[in-house]
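Researcher: Re-running this chain for the archive, since the previous output was lost when a drive failed. Same request as before.
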Amino acid sequence: MRVSRCVGCKEFPCADVRHESYLVPEVNVEPSQVRVAMVAEAAPSEPADYYYAPGEPLFGRTTVMAFRDAGVNVSSLHDLLGLGFYFTTAVKCGKKAYGISAATVKQCSYILEQELALFPKLSTIMLMGDVAIKALNHVARRAKEGTVVPSGPTYRIRGGRYFWRGRRVFPSYLQAGPAFFIEKSKRRMIAEDIRAAFESLPGAA
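Model: Regenerated structure tokens:
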């Protein structure tokens, strides 16, 4: 299954993002093999930096580094796909400025909801940053399921036990792109959260 053929945006109503950098994963995956979805913030401004771009894209490099920090012996995003991980963003267009409006996050959460529904064996969702957390909360509240992850600084809420439709949810920090290199403390916490996500998987030792 090629994800980009199943979900996407048709009307592009959001004014505060770069529509020219719109990206939905082009990756071809077997839906039943996906166990963990890692949801980052927004698509990069440059398509060449996106997870599934040819070569060594920035999103892929920093994500692999995060997993290696966590003690996972992988060398490429392809290795992680083979372990049952799937990588996407909450907002499918690139940012124009530092922030993303609440209206845009809410609008794009419809796509995220459809995207996550493609994977029947999904057991774990990693929300990498505030935008991803807000997007999943929109999905849950729209279905009258309440708030999945409570509001508050990430360092306070990470480590809690959160669930959405029977799936374990881990709030963490953004691992995709240049932000990964800025704060060593956040990088350490990302590694801790990845290890915790692995330990939560069905059949984990």
